[in-house]
Amino acid sequence: MRKISTLRQIVTQCLLTLLGFFVILPIWGMLRLAFDGALRGRPTEFRLFPKEWSLTAFLQVLDRPYQSVEFSVLLKNSLLVSFGAALFAIILGISLAYAFARFRFPARKQGLFAILLTAFLPPVAFMTPLYILLSILQIRTTLLALVLVYASFALPFCIWNMRAAFQSIPKEIEEAAFLDGAGDFQTFQKITLPLAIPSIGISGLIAFLMAYSEFAIGWLFVDKADNVTLAMSVYAIVQSQYSGGAQPWSYLGSLTIIMSIPVIIIFLIFQYTLLERMLFGSAE
Amino acid sequence: MKRFEVPIRVLFIVLVAFIAWSLRARAVEKLGIDFDEDDYLRAGQEYTHLIRTSNWSGFLDTNYRPEHPPLAKIIIGLSLLSAPEKDLIPDAPTTAEPNRYIPQELVQPARTTNAILGWLTVLLLAIVNPLAGLALATHTFTIKYVSQVMLEALPALTSFITVLAYLQFKKKEKTNWLITSGIFLGLTATSKYLYCVVGIAILIDWFLEAKSKKQVKPFLRQAMMWGLIAFAIFFIANPYLWTNPIGRLQESVFYHAQYSSSAEEVNQAGYPFWQPFNWLFFTPIVWHRDAFLFAPDIWITFLAIIGVARLWKRERVYVLWMGVALIFLLFWQTKWPQYILILTVPLSLSAAEGISTLWNQLLEWWKNRQVQQTAINKNEARRAIPWLVPGLIAFAIFTIFPLIFQIIVSLTDFNTASIRDGFQGGIWRAFWDGITGQLPISEWDGSRANKVRFTGLTTYPYVFEAIATGFGSGRSILFFNIMWAVVSVILQSGLGLGAALLLWQRGLKLTKFWQALFIVPWAIPEMIGALMWFNIFQREWGWLYLAADKFGADSFFGVLVQGFENSSSLWFASFLIPALWYGFPFMMLAASTGLKLIPASVYDAAAMDGANAIQTFRYVTLPLLLPLLLPAIIVRGIFAFNQFYLFQAFFYREGTLATLSYNIFNPSGFFGGGEFATSAVINIITVLILIIFVSMFNRWSKAEEGVVNA
After folding, report:
1. Given CB atoms, is B589 within the 8 Å cutoff of chain A?
2. ipTM score for this prediction
3. Within a domain: residue A55?
């Protein structure tokens, strides 16, 4: 391939700028709200830039974004629920992932299909039974319930991905350990697991993000303001607007931006790895 | 076996004919009086009167509802000859409600005549393909509109004969068949213009055939003759045209153009442009509960989709017929349900091929079943046990058990009214008593009781019908969900591939910057991205609407807003745009990963062969890239099918099955809700649909491995 001509360079840059404009447009819309100190409720006039540049909304949101709950409580809940869910999903799924990666046993194919299928189900498909089951157990409104629910959403996906992680480690390494007299479990613990940790971490990260940004199903389960996560509080601000709530729309802008920035950084760093994971590797 | 083939076939055709007639006879009797029936009956009455008084010259000036040519109405008139003479049915505007007081003595013979014509169509089709005949015999939309005083029965029959005669001509090359085809096309036009789409399909097929045989000139000559015959017949059989041909032809043709764009009832219906597809997912059984025994319409549509490739190989013209008709209906602004009758014949043929396709695949699977079983190493299986047991327990508790419990809930009528009972063991009790037969099945009827009841599988047909017909509104949720997945993935893949190709050019500046920027929408949590777009498209204080306020109705934004407000289809774009924004980065990354895998030597070879940029893309890049992209496309397709947060953020109740399920479930939501069992049924239907998608993914990603290894 030859290098491109100047004309083509210019045309391409113009097209990319156009696409860049499309990408930025909605983000810009949120940013202009977030930095507008003059906003009392919903926006009422068209503006490209904030009427009064101000950081009030950010400061407010970092203090008490939702009702009288402090930001730190929401963040704590979010982190607790997301870490909890990711950890649960990984610990519960790891042995099954390893079994499917290394051994042949009856009905293995059907098992793999079941995992893949459940990984593709929408969270809503699990919502109905989990709601009823956790209600019966009388823990539906607790943070633990959220951890379990999100872990359940993420589990099949994590199993599928950790299996890929184990498969990518050459079998020969394990066999060498095996010849040195290590048992299955020892080999796993000393050799395979350390090698697979980065990969497993990515699976956990995806589970974490899933829980971190979930809001709708969370609202079904939780009814106390103290147990609300960040994502849920975003949705609460939107809904309160519909029922005539008093919070300025700039809160929504600043809270979504605060929530998004760490995730964007993570995605920029791990883009290709995340892509590979979300493509479910390749089936056998 | 061969000896019995013919008798079995004949027997099957007789059976189909019997089924077709009994269903039509039932419909003739039980269908309520519908829109337009009074009009066409009155049109028929006028002809009856002319015939009775031997006033033959009256035909020259009689054509009540002149937008449709007279033949089908004359047939109605003939059928009324045996009936007692009644006063003319009063003239009413097209907006009027159906006239329920028209005399039964007239309705009965007119409907029966139409039903006989409809039955003949089935009989002909059954002779061509018995399975297709069965499909058409049971298709409820077809039954409805050929068993009422409508104009559909005759042109449906004549248009089919047009094709059959054309096919005979193609096979035997005898001019007689060509003439027959032309005559019947003419007769079709004299009944209802719409059915003439069949002529376009024939011309396309004919031209393709001639081109492959390099006989375009004789084709032009013959096609000209065929068209002239059709036109001559159209004129001869249409006495209304004789005194003032041009004026009256104009009047009838322009009426349709005007009607479709300005008639009150058309605007009020507000159907989106894809409404013809909605009708294919619909069934009139929701309008007339006792006129039909069962409604296989949606299954015929699904089978037709499966069979279309096979039908193309066997008889291209039928697929062209279906395609031309669908494209025409998509663009035609009037979207009445009876219009789909112009394609139910090829639809049935395609459905029959669909059955054959499925049957062949089943046979293949059965044959390969034993081959695929690989030997299990017992030692290895034993070593797997300690790993499998804890994992399986966790998987069973967190994933499998909830799904099984969901099935149990779906067999009950659990809802907010019975919430206390359900949480205190009522679900188990109802299920257990029901499954052991201690409790009779109480059929699901939407009523609420404070104790959980066992409904068995009775909720399923109700829910399936509701999502297929959009709760009887004609706006199919199931079709929308499928269309949503397909269209949004096509757009995302297109833009993603485009962006990847742009960035892939060697020597391009700022590549890293652009790529980083384009990934951002993917990184933003879906719900937040949806809210960002909500902030633009919201009806009162969205950016777009505020801009329209500020710059006025004539500005770019004003026109855009007007478009959104007045169109019955554009709202679809307000979801597609956010989905495109959110989804294209993923496809861009997948495509650029794929592009890196294509070795440079391939391009050097292409360059040496003198291929230009477009050729290189068409014949080198795309074929190599597509198999790598397919898994990504299917993954995105499944995600789009399950899309929930986008629709939820826009407060749209029925976007996808997942959204509907959530809102039907949510006991404290905007949309009522609290129907736990119904939500469970929707989820199970979703699971069943996803099994098909995931099987596809499984197959395609295997195909990908083959490509990578090759």
Report:
1. yes
2. 0.90
3. no
